[in-house]
Write a structure and sequence with these properties.
Length: 57
């Protein structure tokens, strides 16, 4: 999994799963500067209500 793929999947569905959030937090120390910015954007989208924590079918 990559943060870019996760970001695009989350944007297209409007949902990010608990497992994906866990992956982001476990791997954030290995992210490049660009990947860190993408992770921050995911957090902003969750905070603003544009992304929901949930389950993708």
């Amino acid at each position: 999994m990559s943060i870019g793929t996760l970001f695009l999947a989350s944007l297209s569905t409007g949902i990010i799963t608990q497992e994906e959030m866990g992956w982001v937090t476990r791997n954030q120390s290995e992210f490049s500067r660009c990947e860190q910015a993408t992770a921050l954007k995911l957090g902003q989208l969750i905070d603003s209500g544009q992304l929901q924590l949930g389950c993708r079918l």
